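[Meeting: bench + compute handoff]

Bench side (C.D.) handed over the final construct sequence. Compute side (W.E.) agreed to return the predicted structure before the next meeting so the bench team could plan truncations. Sequence as handed over:
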Amino acid sequence: MFLRDPARHPKLSIVIPLYNEEENIPLLVESIFKSFVIPHGQLELVLVNDGSHDRTAEIAGSYAASDPRIRLINHEHNRGLGGAIRTGLAAAEGDWILYTDADLPFDFTLIPQLLAATDSGRIVIGCRQNRGEGVRRWVLSKCYNILCRVLLGIDVSDVNFACKLIPKHVVPRMRLRSEGSFIDAELLLECRRNGLEFTEFPLTYYPRTRGISTLSRPAVIFGIFKELFRYLFEQMRNGLLKSQLAIDSPAIRYGIGFLTITLALLVAVLFNPLIGAYSFLVFLPAIVFTALYGGARSCMMTIILSVIASRYFLAPPIFVLSNKEDLQRLGVLVIPAILGYALRAIGLMRVKDDACERSE
């Protein structure tokens, strides 16, 4: 059975992008249809030939012609991994869509277990328990995962592993733009934007033995960074501080704190001759703003930086914490932090309510 409810078997679509994969197709098809038992009519294999130059289209076409469970979609020209996955997701008809690679990166007999971990409010993400691809690929993968965590707030251990099980109902609401390998991160970002939770499923990774991987090529890496920063630019253009990205990205949350404190300190230094001992008050808007858009930890950092800035950059020193008055001034900075974080909590509740309404 695939779900906890044995009375219903969901239809599963397996989407696989193909680019010069003629050597992998026979074993791929055999592995999918012989690795596990699935009710008749409840499985489809969607093969997306992304402008291959070898016999991929011919071989895949022969399988599709002889088995109604297999569908082949051809791109006239190579669009890239993202373009192929987007085509496959749009064409898939199953209740659940599993995206994976043609080189059998994990044991397909585990697919029923992946399905058993699902529900309509989550995406199941395969993650590698082992690394069998060499030091260079390991370093690239680790650096990319860290970058996605810091810039995008994607807190998963293996962003680019080709095993993602997505509920079909969320696909029409996804705003996918990537044509290249940034598609893995974009899929997770769009699932998060639509209110889905992440469940990681550890898998043993099997390195490619046939065909050629293009993921670590310089052009592909450059394309990932290009699309990543294009995504960030679009978020900024569409209102970065009101987006889910501002809530989840550590770089943005703490960056807000550093930026607001820098601006507040500049104002305090310029107007210190006029306001004197009350220069510390210019930090109050910065703290409210950071608490509202950055969260509790970023706000705490902002308060600490406010104390340090007041102590070492303004004259006379405001905070030496040597008497009751200095402690009272420090308390003044905590009050706007509480106010800002309360407003943030209200905003987060509205975001969750909106996501729930979209999923209904």
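W.E. noted at the follow-up: Residues 324-359 form the longest helix (36 residues). C.D. will use this when planning the next construct.
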